[in-house]
C-alpha cells in the first residue's frame, strides 16, 4: 500500500542499500535500549560461567577471562527497533576460544546467554561458533560503558541486537530451544534481520 | 485499499482525528480495519511506503486506554531530522490510510491485575505509554494509587496537561508531580529541576505504601537518571521497568 504523500529523502545510497536489512534505517549514533535500570558491575565482582543445564563446566574471573585469546570484529549491527549501524568495532573473546579453554565441544544445539540483571536470550549454538560471535570487552578500543552492556556483552551481530546480551555473565547449554526474556514477551525465537524475524508471529 | 493476505500482521488504519497537543506533539487517532484490544503501555509499528516501494517504519506508543473506544491514539513528537514524524506533522490528514502492526510489546505494560501502588516517571513524550496506564487505571480501578512524575522542559510542553491536572484535582489516589527543567514551577507541589532521588522519595511518599512497580520512559539519558533516582529513593531495581527511545 503506497502512503499518500510519502516521498522520503532518507533513502540510502545504492552502494549502502544492500547492507541495510528490510525495514531498517541507517543510524549514525549508538542508541541505548534496555528493559530495566543499568546495572553497574565492577570488574572485581565480574565472572563468566559456562554451564550445561544447571551444571557449571568452567568459571572465569575478570583477569582469567581477559587472559584468553582476544580477537577483533567490525560488523554492522541491526536493532529490532529498526536502526542499523555500520562498522561497529569490537574486541573480545570469540565463543570458539571460550569453548576451547573449557576443553569442550558444545554438548547441545541450543544456548541461553545469561546476564547479571537476570536477562536471558536464546541463540542456537551453531550461531555462536565458527567465528560468528564473541564476548566483547572493548568497543572502539575502550572498555564498554555500562549503558552499552559493559564490562562485557555478547556480540552476535548477524542476529537482531537483543540477542547480543548486555552485562553477560554466562552461557548455558540447553537441551531444547528455551525462550529468553524478550522471546517470552512476543519477540522472535531466532531473530534474523534479513528475514525480518522481529516478532513471534513472523515466519 | 490493497487487500493484504490474511496472514499479514500489517493492516490499514484510517486516521479519524488529529489534535495538536503541544507545539511539538500532535495526537493522531487511528481506526484499524481489524480492531484490536491493546494493553496499557504497548506500542504499534507504523509503516510508510513511497511510490517506488521504499518503506520506513517506526514504533509509537499508544496513549489511549484499552477500553477507550474510538480507535487508538498515538501522540507523535516531531523530530526535525526525522523521516516519519515530519510526515505525520506536515502531510498526514484525516481520512488517510496508514499501515500499522500491533499491538506489540510484553514488558512495559501495566494491567489491573499487576496491582499497585505504581510510580510512573516520564520525560517529554516518554509520558505517552504512561498516559495509557493512567487512563486505564482511571477507567478500570481507581483503587490503585499512582504517582506520575512528569518532566518537561517548559509548561507549554506538558503533554496532556489539562487532563492530567484534572485527574490530579480529583484527589482519588492519582498524584501528578510536574517538574519543569527550563521554567519555574507553576503549581506549589511541583518542581523546577531535573529528576533526582529526593524528588522521587517525595513522590513515593505521596503513596499510601511502597510502590509495587515503577515504569520509566523517555530518552536514554532521562531514563538512566530517573532509574538511578528511583533506586536512590529506595525503590528496588528489580521492580523498575524501563523503555528508552534509544537516542
TrEMBL record, chain A:
Pfam families: Oxidored_molyb. SUPFAM superfamilies: Oxidoreductase molybdopterin-binding domain (SSF56524). Residues 1-22 are annotated as: Disordered. Residues 36-182 form the Oxidoreductase molybdopterin-binding domain. It comes from the Bacteria. InterPro entries: OxRdtase_Mopterin-bd_dom (IPR000572), OxRdtase_Mopterin-bd_sf (IPR036374). Gene3D superfamilies: Oxidoreductase, molybdopterin-binding domain. PANTHER family: OXIDOREDUCTASE MOLYBDOPTERIN-BINDING DOMAIN-CONTAINING PROTEIN, PROTEIN-METHIONINE-SULFOXIDE REDUCTASE. This is Sulfite oxidase-like oxidoreductase. It comes from Mesorhizobium atlanticum.
Automatic annotation (TrEMBL), chain B:
The lineage of its organism: Bacteria, Pseudomonadati, Pseudomonadota, Alphaproteobacteria, Hyphomicrobiales. Its cofactor is [2Fe-2S] cluster. Transmembrane segments: none annotated. This is Oxidoreductase. GO terms for molecular function: oxidoreductase activity. Pfam families: FAD_binding_6, NAD_binding_1. It comes from the Bacteria. It comes from Mesorhizobium atlanticum. InterPro entries: Cbr1-like_FAD-bd_dom, FAD-bd_FR_type, Flavoprot_Pyr_Nucl_cyt_Rdtase, FNR_nucleotide-bd, MRET, OxRdtase_FAD/NAD-bd, Riboflavin_synthase-like_b-brl.
